[in-house]
Amino acid sequence: QELGSAGASVGVKGKEREPGQGHVAVKEVVLPFLKLKGVDTILGPEMKSTGEVMGIDDDFGKAFFKSELAAYNPLPLDSGSTVFISVCEADKEGVVEVARKLKEAGLSVVGTEGTVECLRRCGIAAQSLRKLHEEHEGVPNVVEMMRLREVKLVINTPTDKQSYKDGYQIRRACIDLGIPYITTMQAASAAADAILGVKTFGRRGGVEVKSVNEYFK
Asked: Which DSSP symbol is given to 197?
């Protein structure tokens, strides 16, 4: 109310400049991990962003997709693209719906043994990879697949000390190789909604580009 009164006093009518109903805006930070060699990508209170970007669309999924694209963290859209998923025990219930949406969007899923077993029990096909510290001849690990450009998105929530060490190597490889990565289930759910939403946007797929002025009609 105070802001509105101040605006009115200088002849500014705030409501006339509000976007129309039905649009969603998602703000995302841009973080300097590529410049910080060896730094883990798990966010802490001391981490500072180098800027912010925003995606706007008519639903949350597509707005989130645009914000990630603008933050140099593009989500995969090509059918058959592979997503690596490895989550802690507490996140396994939630990751099922995430994987289901990714499969519906035409993506393939790989993961560590525990996560893959959870998905298979729920009827979701997924390929099991070995963990970084495990040795299984003929079975690749995710970093090897990333270096071959066979993984297009990583969803990883660390658990015990060894898994955390593996997770650091995975997250750091994502930065060095330019592969989008996700470390929370909230972001994983948003990403799955984004990919599915963009893939099913009309027959051609993709995102709709509008100027900011078009949202202020």
From this structure: H
Cα dihedral: 193, 199, 200, 204 (round 10) = 160
Element (H or E) spanning 143, and its range? Answer: helix 142-147
Instruction: Tell me, yes or no, whether 82 lies in a domain.
Output: yes
User: For residues 140 and 144, what is the distance between their CA atoms, to the nearest angstrom?
Assistant: 6
Tokens encoding 101 = 């949406």
Residue 155 belongs to domain with CATH number:
3.40.50.1380
Domain count, the chain: 1
Instruction: Work out the pLDDT band at 41, boundaries 50, 70, 90.
Output: low
DSSP per residue, 40-103 = --S--TT---SEEEEEEESSHHHHHHHHHHHTT-PPP-STT-EEEEE--GGGHHHHHHHHHHHH
Q: Which domain holds residue 112?
A: 74-199
**What does the pLDDT average to over 62-71?**
91
Inter-CA distances, 188 with 12, 16, 31, Å: 41, 36, 18
In-domain check, residue 20: no
C-alpha dihedral sign at 97, 101, 106, 107: negative
